[in-house]
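pinging the channel bc i need a second pair of eyes. not urgent but kinda urgent?? the chain im working w is below, pasted from the shared doc
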Amino acid sequence: MSLSRYRLFASAAALFLTPTLAFAAPQVVVSIKPVHSLVAALMQGVGEPSLIVEGTASAHTYSLRPSHARALENADLVFWVGPGLEAFLEKPLDALAGKATVVELEDAPGLVRLPFREGGAFETHEDEGEDAHAGGEDHAAQDDHDAPEDHATEDHTGDEHGHAHEHEGFDMHFWLDPMNAKAMAAEIESALVTADPANAARYKANGLALAQEIDTLDKEIFSALAPVKDKPSVVFHDAYQYFENRYKVRIAGSITVSPETMPGAERVAEIHAKVKELQAVCVFAEPQFEPKLISVVTEGTDAKAGRLDPEGGALDAGPALYPELMRNLAKSLIDCLSK
């Protein structure tokens, strides 16, 4: 090839490649699987976000790896729920993610936030959050980011086990209410559009499709849970308040408030008594924690053992994880409570 023809070819190649480079996806890092699933759904056709808490690991007890530190250093955007759930990320974000826009999703407009519940035995909040969580209603107000009434009324600084409840005592498992997932997705979409306006149309189209999928999922779960929602059960740790409040299922107590701290004998005895008193149908463990306490709590009762996975630890990361996680929670409850 002559030199002149080579230069012409190189110039044409450069012109061809320039638009591709202009539309390159931002480097996005996400803390946990449920949030990663929402981000991945919004980024379909543009790029793939990186995930920090992989496999069945728990955000409550996670330690950052060197590969994740490098990802944070190179990130353009970081999405996390907040320090009340992912305390292990607070210092690394300050130290490593200096060039990134960090989006704390607990501050998403329209998010319904519920206060921590103290103590191991509790009953469903029958009147709490009726307007914000009524099944099958039009949620246009939340879709438009009109924030509902804030449910947090107290600032719990800790519990009897020494677990520090951060951020004014809010329960941080927001995604277990699909309407909260929609609010988080809207905030994620806004951040992606701001960071990457060249792909704004794709993010917005994906956001509309995701919102519609979540609405369909929500109605499906309401219908599926209706036959068993009044049967009492006990969970390993109090991670399901948003799911419970949304679908009015009857979770009567938790073995521990904090998964970092195993409960003492007094608390185990309290829950055991509650299981017997309520004739609880099921006691649920989690894949991240394999407590022998379940057998202790159910000993001498008719309660069966089940398993719930609130963070999708046993699922493959990606766009399909969030709806699969929610369907699996409903299915696990139905399978155990229907027997």
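so The radius of gyration is 22 Å. and The domain at 233-337 is CATH 3.40.50.1980 (Rossmann fold). — does that match what u expected or am i reading it wrong
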